[in-house]
Amino acid sequence: MNNNSERHASAMAALTLSKVTRDYRQGKETVHALRTTDLEIHNGELVGILGPSGSGKSTLLTVMGGLRTPTTGTVEIGGEPFSALPEKKRAQLRRQYLGFVLQNSGLVPFLTLADQFALHDRVLKRAPTTEHRDELLDTLGISDRVRAYPSQMSGGEKQRAAIAVAVYHDPTVILADEPTAALDSHRAHDVAQLLAQQTHEQGKATVMVTHDERILPVCDRVMVMRDGVLSDEKRSESP
Ligand code: ADP
Ligand code: MG
């Protein structure tokens, strides 16, 4: 019995979407941004999601992370029926389990980079680990920006700062929206490597939305989004 429940726990997905859809109202029109989606993501798995602009990638990511509610269907995080919870409880679980790297970086505009890290420690009631912070900043090449405000950073620096803060937070699930969009090849590679390393060594479940084909080799699974439909990548078999 005990054994069985342990096996069950280890097989349980970190993130499960069951028949999830998301519509938007645009005036009198309804946009079906996300069509019926079933998806399981496990700890230790880095999933890349490719797709053209407007195909529904950000919608998928924000629904996964509970920043938007699905129109139909359910999202479970660590077995918790996340999407059905009231916003207050959802926000609490988000803080506990989720690390976001959003397209608009998600940094708090009026805090220095150092204070963004400190904020996480306060919210999570943990002791600060400056060593871990500095290691992340060093890996991403932004050690010299630790006293800077987001407005004083370049697009690429903000992006890397957001990733460092998200990883520092030590979430179970990392959701990254175009994390390498503003980066040159060298930096894009560092970011992808850091996410892959966190995923594999720390057993995180990571979803990375991208149209940057350079970073696909680090992904364990690549999926494609087209017109709100998510499917496994079909490798071309033509000669
Ligand atoms: P992607 O991230 O792949 O570019 P999005 O998820 O941002 O795609 O958008 C998917 C579709 O949903 C697009 O047609 C977009 O215009 C529409 N959409 C996105 N956000 C909203 C919104 N807040 N209100 C209305 N329509 C939206
Ligand atoms: Mg997007």
Explain how this protein is built.
It is a single chain. This protein is α/β, with parallel strands linked by helices and 239 residues long. 34% of the residues lie in helices and 26% in strands. The chain has a single domain (14-230), classed as Rossmann fold. The termini are far apart. The site of adenosine-5'-diphosphate has 12 residues, from strand 1, strand 2 and helix 2.
Topology:
Blueprint lengths: L1 H10 L3 E12 L2 E13 L3 E6 L6 H8 L7 E6 L9 H11 E4 L11 H11 L6 H10 L15 H14 L4 E5 L7 H18 L2 E6 L10 E6 L2 E4 L7
Parallel strand pairs: 3-7, 3-8, 5-6, 6-7
Antiparallel strand pairs: 1-2, 1-4, 8-9
The chain binds adenosine-5'-diphosphate (ADP) and magnesium ion (MG).
Identify the notable features of this structure and list them briefly:
239 residues; Rossmann fold; 6-stranded mixed sheet; 7 helices; globular; disordered N terminus; binds magnesium ion
Give me a quick take on this structure.
The protein has a six-stranded mixed sheet, with helices on both faces. Strands 2-1-4 form a three-stranded antiparallel sheet.
